[in-house]
Design brief:
The chain is built from 13 helices and 14 strands. It has 395 residues and is α/β, with parallel strands linked by helices. 31% of the residues are buried. It is found in: Membrane.
Length: 395
């Protein structure tokens, strides 16, 4: 009986092993083409122009000695035009000797014309592609997205890595695909970082005129379409409202002599709480920040606590004006790009259900109460400016 049971268990084990057929759909690494960046344009005939960035492994050898010959850039950009984004990507795939892999794509750049037409087709493709990361950053180019691919990466190897670091370091808004997908469920309003592009002589390129790309303001989306822009201060207000402003520089005119003082932002946090006042909807926004004095050209006495309080009040007031100005501009456009409606839904679902269908119009009538509190934590090793020290010695 015991032998019989052992045979049964052995047969069951063997039958389970037969069900393990291996990775029949596996694609070897050497057969993959890894997308690092995706660039979407819309041209005048209504077609989409899709550009994909790929690293070239055979040109990315590490440990290369100085003086060894180079064989071009370690990346390539492939572009195809079609009536839709998936068809354009299929055309790119047809020209490749490898299978396209989306797992390393962290940046999507949309051209201005494509953004103004609407990004629903892009979101449709990304949402249905199982291997696409929804945490990929989405940015807007001032012209064609394809022009951004011509940038000269100096500190990074690939153009997409340069753009990714802009968002990672919070130099611009870090809006991603997931943010747009969530926004599409409540009206499609969102804000994304704008890029800027130009030509300049680069010492790293032996003085040749090359393409550089930097950050600019922000693009405002309403119902999935770009309807306007914010300047750099407006974009930075977006970082403040999201509580993501840090390691950035702000300047202020000294209250004593009007000369420039610079501060480094150490940290910030923001809270948004809706409130109902009769038939009116309002939002109480509270922003707190900690700064250090980075430099001072003023003769103000930084060892005087009363002067520090004056500086803190001026910094807080300056921040309040910038945020209020940005909020009013979004209200004028009727675009809830900072997702205040979502906060209303979380806290007052019954009120939201009453207003959600006409939210774009109701948003224009909302009240904002902005409280800002900027604290200067440290004045640095030089307790007063060199100007102040010289005046004290002269006195």
């Amino acid at each position: 009986m015991q032998l019989r049971m052992k045979l049964i268990w052995l047969l069951l084990l063997c039958s389970n092993l037969m069900l393990i057929t291996g990775c029949w759909s596996r694609i070897e690494v050497n057969d993959r083409a890894f997308v690092t960046g995706m660039y979407i344009d819309r041209i005048d005939n209504g077609s989409y122009e899709v550009s994909l960035g790929f690293p070239l492994p055979n040109r990315m050898a590490s440990g290369q000695s100085p003086g060894m010959p180079t064989y071009g850039n370690p990346y390539t950009i492939l572009t195809k035009t079609a009536e839709s984004i998936p068809v354009a990507i299929r055309k790119i795939r047809s020209d490749l000797t490898r299978e396209i892999t989306w797992g390393h794509c962290r940046v999507i750049v949309v051209g201005k014309q494509a953004a103004e037409y609407g990004i629903d087709s892009l979101l449709e493709f990304v949402a249905r592609e199982p291997n696409f990361h929804t945490k990929s950053y989405l940015m807007v180019a001032p012209g064609k997205a394809r022009d951004i691919t011509k940038l000269t990466p100096v500190f990074e190897r690939l153009p997409a890595e340069v753009l990714r670091e802009f968002s990672n370091r919070k130099v611009t808004l870090d809006t991603n695909v997931k943010d747009f997908l969530e926004a599409s469920m409540s009206g499609g309003d969102m804000i994304a970082g704008m890029l800027t592009i130009g030509q300049t002589e680069m010492l790293s390129e032996k003085g040749k005129e090359s393409t550089w790309v930097g950050t600019d303001g922000a693009a405002l989306f309403k119902k999935g379409k770009m309807i306007g822009t914010l300047d750099v201060n407006g974009m930075r207000a977006g970082l403040w409202l999201k509580g993501k402003m840090k390691s950035s520089l702000i300047s202020l005119k000294s209250p004593s002599d009007g000369k420039t003082m610079s501060f480094i932002i150490l940290s910030s946090k923001a809270s948004i709480k809706p409130f109902i006042d009769g038939e009116k909807i309002g939002f109480h926004i509270k922003i707190e920040a900690e700064d250090d004095i980075l430099s001072s050209e003023s003769d103000i006495d930084l060892t005087d606590p009363k002067e520090i309080i004056r500086i803190q009040e001026l910094l807080s007031e300056q921040l309040k004006r910038r945020i209020t100005r940005t909020l009013y501009k979004t209200q004028d456009m009727g675009a809830d790009v900072f997702q205040f409606g979502r906060h209303l839904d979380w806290n007052y679902p019954k009120v939201w259900s009453k207003h959600k269908d006409g939210w774009h119009a109701d948003y224009k009538m909302c009240t904002f109460i902005v409280d800002t509190n900027v604290q200067v934590k440290r004045i640095g090793v030089e307790r007063n400016s060199i100007v102040r020290q010289h005046e004290d010695r002269a006195g």
